[in-house]
Amino acid sequence: MAAILEEGRRGHACAVRLVVGRGLIRDEVMRQLSWLAMSGDILEFDHCAGNTGAIMVTLRRLPGRGFE
Fold this sequence. Notes:
This protein is of the alpha+beta class.
C-alpha cells in the first residue's frame, strides 16, 4: 500500500484506488489510512461506490476545482 501511495504522489494522480477485499486486511488498511489522514499525508478516503472491498484514496485536489 505504501508503494502505491508513493507512486501516486510522485506522479500526477489525484487519487488511487486500493482493492483490499473484505476482512482483516481491509480493517488494517482502514486503520493505516485513518492515521495517514490525521497526519495530513492523504486528504481523505472512502469506499468506492458502495464496494467495501475497494477504497478510493484522495492524495491531492485537482487545481481549479474550488477545493484549494
